[in-house]
Amino acid sequence: MEKEGEQLCEAAGNGEIDKVKALIDLGADVSYFDSNGLTPLMHAAKLGHADVVKTLLEAGAPWNALSPSNLSAGDFAMDFGHQEAFEVLLNAGIQAELILGTIAREAKKNSDSNGNYLEDRVSFSEDKLMDSNSKAVMMAWEKPLMEAHAKAVCSGGGHILNIGFGMGLVDTAIQQYSPVTHTIVEAHPEVYERMLRSGWGEKDNVKIIFGRWQDVLSQLESYDGIFFDTYGEYYEDLREFHQHLPKLLKPGGIYSFFNGLCGAPSGLLFPKHHRYLSSRHFNPYLMKPKARPKPYAAFQAIQSPSFHFSSSPTTSLL
Ligand SMILES: C[S@@+](CC[C@H](N)C(=O)[O-])C[C@H]1O[C@@H](n2cnc3c(N)ncnc32)[C@H](O)[C@@H]1O
């Protein structure tokens, strides 16, 4: 098996399509990683053999496998300027994403995203907000991250929307930029009560909307800056929110989000909110086809247990 795997890598890199097909027919492993941690697909992509890339994908080669330096076959194709191979890989990724999304939506129909969390008690202390299982919903150490998000979404001024109040870290930072309006959506009754008790309801430019964002969409308008950071939701909820962005975000507006979904255990759905590193800025109105440095990152998050987004601002496919 190992021998055929090595041969497949070599043939793929050489663009020997007939040999690749013959080896696949003989049962060579299309998911094989050679001693350098590269798959046959990566070899073909690196050298721009689009026909071999296609054949390998049709044989089930994993388009989102990563090399030891965290590069996918798509990255190799793009980095080496092989547009055709890149397009083939990108299409494979989009198709997989559509299928995975459909499966996730079906699975979600039978589940309750954050119902339990919203019905249970939460507790506040000086430096954290905890759910009823003593899991941290939000912690004070995240303040600098929240300040950076606030800075990004307020950079154009105007009307700002924040989904998920938590400890109010991002909202406190947003207030420092004196937005024209500052709308906050919060779904947990106790968090909402605490917001009112601490005077958030009396601020001139603040509008609080109590409820799940999914249920209050009709009360939302268009904003210059949007931040999204909920708790206890699924990847599919985030994706659903992203689908509303073209309407919610004004042209030229800035969207940023924080979630920990990417560090969650593998599987299509992430029932708990894992607050691992994940911080990205995204503006669909500024996104150009060539400005997609890591088109596979968003998809990879669905499948890989160890994957996490980088904290550097980057674009993503929705
Ligand atoms: C991680 S905290 C937000 C922390 C906030 N960014 C900060 O700076 O303190 C998540 C918040 O989202 C709220 N939340 C969870 N699901 C929600 C939903 N579907 N709609 C609106 N808010 C939600 C939670 O009650 C919680 O207050």
In short:
With 318 residues, the protein is α/β, with parallel strands linked by helices. The protein has helices at 2-14, 17-25, 40-46, 50-58, 73-79, 83-109, 115-119, 143-153, 169-175, 189-197, 235-248, 297-303; strands spanning 123-124, 128-130, 136-139, 159-163, 181-186, 206-210, 223-228, 249-258, 279-282.
Polypeptide structure, described:
This is Ankyrin repeat family protein / methyltransferase-related. Keywords: Methyltransferase, Transferase. It comes from Melia azedarach (Chinaberry tree). The chain has 318 residues and is of the alpha/beta class. 39% of the residues lie in helices and 14% in strands. The chain has helices at 2-14, 17-25, 40-46, 50-58, 73-79, 83-109, 115-119, 143-153, 169-175, 189-197, 235-248, 297-303; strands at 123-124, 128-130, 136-139, 159-163, 181-186, 206-210, 223-228, 249-258, 279-282. A 6-stranded mixed sheet has the order 6-5-4-7-8-9, sandwiched between helices. Strands 1-2-3 form a 3-stranded antiparallel sheet, with no helix packed on it. Helix 3 (40-46) packs antiparallel against helix 4, helix 5 (73-79) packs antiparallel against helix 6 (83-109) and helix 8 (143-153) packs across helix 9 (169-175). Mean pLDDT is 80; it is low at 262-318.
